[in-house]
Amino acid sequence: MHCFNQSPKLPSRKPFWIACVCLLGCQQLMAQNAVPLNDLSFFDNPSSNWKVAANAQADITQDEVLTTKDGNGILVNLPGKKGAKDLFTKAVYGDADLELDYMMAKGSNSGIYLQGRYEIQLLDSWGTLNPKSGDNGGIYERWDDSKPEGQQGYDGHAPRQNASRAPGLWQHMKISFQAPRFDANGQKISNAKVLYVWLNGVLIQDNVELAGPTRGAFDNKEAATGPLRLQGDHGPVAFRNIRITNYDKPHPTLSNLKYWVYKGGEIASDSYKKLKPESEGTSPVLSSNQSKLNNDFLIRYTGNIQIKEAGEYAFKLNVPGGKGIFRIDGSDAVALTENRGEGKIQLQPGDHPFELFYSKIVDWAKPALGLTVAGPGVREYLLSDANVSNNDPVDPILINATSNTILRSFSDLPGGIRVTHGVNVGSPELLHYTYDLDKGMIVEIWRGGFLDATPMWHDRGDGSSRPAGSVQYLGKPVPAIEKLSDANAAWALDTVGTGYRPKGYVLNADDVPAFKYNIYGTSVTDASSIMDKGQGIHREITLANAVDGLFYHLASGNIEALGNGLYAIDDKSYYIRVDDAAGAKAVVRDAGGKQELIIPIQKKLTYSIIF
Fold first, then answer.
1. What integer pLDDT is reported at residue 465 of this predicted model?
2. What is the pairing mode between strands 171-178 and 95-104?
3. 94, 110, 187, 580: which is deepest, by most CB within 10 A?
4. CB burial class (10 A; 0-12, 13-18, 19+) of residue 484?
5. Are 249 and 380 in contact (CB under 8 A)?
6. E strand or H helix at 24, and its extent?
7. With contact defined as beta carbons under 8 Å apart, do 485 and 464 qualify?
8. Which class does domain 253-382 fall in?
9. Which of 433, 415, 420 shows the shortest CA–CA distance to 470?
10. 32-246: in CATH 2.60.120.560
11. Domain(s) of CATH 2.70.98: residues in the chain
12. Torsions phi, psi of 522, nearest 5?
C-alpha cells in the first residue's frame, strides 16, 4: 500500500470469493424481504414505546427529542421515562443480511442485536474523532462481572472510522451476519461472525469473529438461530426501509467433475476439439491447478450441479488473464467473458449438466479459476477451490490530511458528471470537501479518510481522485451566484454572460483556503472553516460591492424547512443552516421537477453545511 501521511484503514485485500460479496457496497445478489411497517404485526408483543409513523424529526440542539407525524412506514422508539422494552421479531434468523435506515435523536443510544445476542451499537457519535466499540457502528463489548473493576468489558470492536451523521439525518447501514455452527451433539464448532458492516457508504467492520454474546444479550446460550432485536429502553430512534435476507437453504453442489486440458485452443470457435488433450481425468473440485501450463492453455470441465430449490441463481466466473464461459443445460449462465463475468439463470430442483471453460492467454496473469453461486436463501458460495484471484493487483494510493491539505484533481459525481477544475480540501478534523472552481461551489463533502488517489497516480492515471470516507454529494454543479429578475426566474447551468473569472485561492496562517472569483462586476471571497468536532462546514461569502438582483444557490433536491434558518436537504441527508444573511430570507422554490433553496445576497452571507 502506498501511503502519504497517516493512511486511513481501508478494506483489507481479499480473495475473489470474499471481495465479490463486498464489492460496491456489498450489493445483494438476491431479493431482500422488506419488513412491512404498516403496523407492528411483524414483531412479537411490542411494548407501548414502539409505534409506526409517517415522519420523524429530531432536534439538533436538544437531547433525546424525536417528534413524529401520524401515519406509517417508519418504526419509532419513544422510550419515555420507564417501562420501555426492546422489540423482537417473530421470525428467527441464522445467516442473514440486514439493511436499513435509522435516525438518532441528539444524545441518543440504541442498538441492533443480531439473534438477540450480538449488538451492533447505534449511538449519536456525531463529531467523535476516535470512535470506540461503544460508538455508532461498533460491535459492543462482551462482559464479565468477575473481572476487576475497569476490566469487565472486553472483546469489543470499534468501527474503522467514524462515518456517523448528525442527529435527525437518516443513516444507512448494511450488516452481514454468519451464525455460529454446531455439530450433531449441539457443541459449537465455529463462532458467529460479522462479515461486514457498512455505514453511510463506508466499510467499518470487516470479518469480525464473535467468541460469544455481547453485553446485554437476552441470553448467553448461543444457537443456530435467533430473533432480530432492536434496543428500546435507552433513547429515541427511528427506523425505515428495513430489509432482511435470510440464508437458510442448502447451497448447490457439484458432482461428476471431469476435465480436459489443451495447449491453446479457442472457446468460441470450438478449435480445441481438433486438439489432443495434454491431460484429462476426474477431479473432486473445480480448479485451475489441473493445468501444468502457466499460459496458453484451455481447461474444459463438465459435471452436474445439484439445485435444492427452484428460483433464480446468480453466478460469478473469475478467469484472470483470459476468457471463460459457464453453461447449464446448454444455456449460458455466464456468457463468454474476459477476466470476470456474471449472469443469472432460472433453475428447477434436481441435477443439471454443466460445462465450464477457462482459456488462459495473458502470460503475466497468475492462473486462477473462481466460480461462486447465490440464490434463493443461499448466500454467495464458492464452488471452486481457493486458488482464485480478485483481479485487482493495485495497492491503493491513499492521502490522509494530518494537517490542512489541498490537492487538485478531477472529481467524478453521480450522473456521469466530472468536475475538471476541482480542489480537494482536507482537514485533520476528518471533514473534507471538493470545491468546483468552474462554478464557485462545494460539490461534495465527506467525513473520514481524505483521498484515494489511485485513479490519478497509478500507471498513466486519469487525473481523478475520490473521497476515502463517507461522502455527501451536494447536487448537480451550478453557478453559486446568479442575477435573477425575481425569485422565480430560472437558474442558469453555466456562467456564460456573467463575467465569471476564477482568481484561485489564498491561504491563511493555518493553510485554510479562501477562494476568489469575479462575477457580475463584483469580487467574491468564498471562505470555509471546519465547525467544532468536524460537525460541518461554516461558509462565509463576501462581495466587494453589492449588485442588485444577485441570489446565492444554497441547495437543490427535496427541501424541508425546519425553522430558525435550518433546512433538511434530500430526504434528511444533510442540513443547510442560514446563519447571517443581513435580513434576507431564503426561498424554497420548484425548479425543473425539483426544489431549490436560494437566498438574496448583498454584501455578505454566512451559512453552514451540517451532516
1. 96
2. antiparallel
3. 110
4. middle
5. no
6. helix 16-26
7. no
8. mainly beta
9. 433
10. yes
11. 398-610
12. -130, 155
| pLDDT, tens digit, 9 for 90 and up, residues 299-355 | 999 999 999 999 999 999 999 999 999 999 999 999 999 999 999 999 999 999 999
CA-based nearest residue to 143, from 155, 160, 125: 155
> Do strands 464-473 and 441-452 pair parallel, antiparallel, or not at all (unpaired)?
antiparallel
Radius of gyration of the chain (CA): 28
Kindly list the distances between the CA atom of residue 284 and the CA atoms of 18, 257, 419, in Å, as whole numbers in the listed order.
22, 7, 52
Cα four-point dihedral sign 71, 76, 79, 80 = negative
The answer to whether residues 466 and 451 touch, using CB atoms and an 8 Å cutoff, is yes
Report the C-alpha gap between 257 and 290 in whole angstroms: 12
Q: How many residues in the chain?
A: 611
Q: Which residues contact 288 (CB under 8 A, 6 or more apart)?
A: 299, 358, 360, 367, 368, 369, 387
**Which of 241, 242, 245 is CA-nearest to residue 571?**
241
- Strand order of the β-sheet with 550-557 is 481-483, 550-557, 594-600, 587-591
Domain with CATH 2.60.120.1560 in the chain: 253-382
C-alpha–C-alpha distance, residues 41 and 19, integer Å = 37
- Beta bridge pairs of residue 45: none
Distance CA 11, CA 524 (A): 41
Contact 425, 433 (CB under 8 A): yes
pLDDT tens digits for range 385-432:
988 765 556 788 999 999 999 999 999 999 999 999 999 999 999 999
pTM of this prediction? 0.89
Residue type present at position 420: T
Cβ-contact 480, 552 below 8 angstroms? yes
Bigger pLDDT: 409 vs 264: 409
Residue type, 325: I
Q: Distances in Å between the alpha carbon of 554 and those of 169, 567, 584? A: 18, 10, 13
* Residue 364 to residue 372: CA distance in whole angstroms: 24
Q: For residues 253, 19, 164 and 589, what is the CA-based torsion angle, rounded to 10 degrees? A: -90
**Rounded to whole angstroms, what are the CA distances from 480 to 139, 440, 498, 551?**
42, 6, 12, 8
Instruction: Collapse the DSSP code of 289 into the 3-class scheme (helix H, G, I; strand E, B; otherwise coil) and give the result.
Output: helix
Contact (CB, 8 A) for 165 and 136: no
* Separation CA 216–CA 610 (nearest Å): 33
Q: What's residue 15's pLDDT?
A: 39
By DSSP bridging, strand 397-399 and strand 2-4 are: parallel
Q: How far apart are CA 86 and CA 240, in angstroms?
A: 17
Q: Is 510 exposed, middle or buried (0-12, 13-18, 19+ CB in 10 A)?
A: exposed
The CATH code for residues 398-610 is: 2.70.98
Q: What are the percentages of helix, strand and coil residues in the chain, rounded to 5?
A: 5, 50, 45
Q: Are strands 594-600 and 550-557 parallel, antiparallel or unpaired?
A: antiparallel
410 forms beta bridges with: 464
Which grid coordinates are listed for 595?
426544489
List, in sequence order, every beta strand (DSSP E) within 60-144.
66-77, 87-93, 95-104, 109-114, 118-123, 142-143
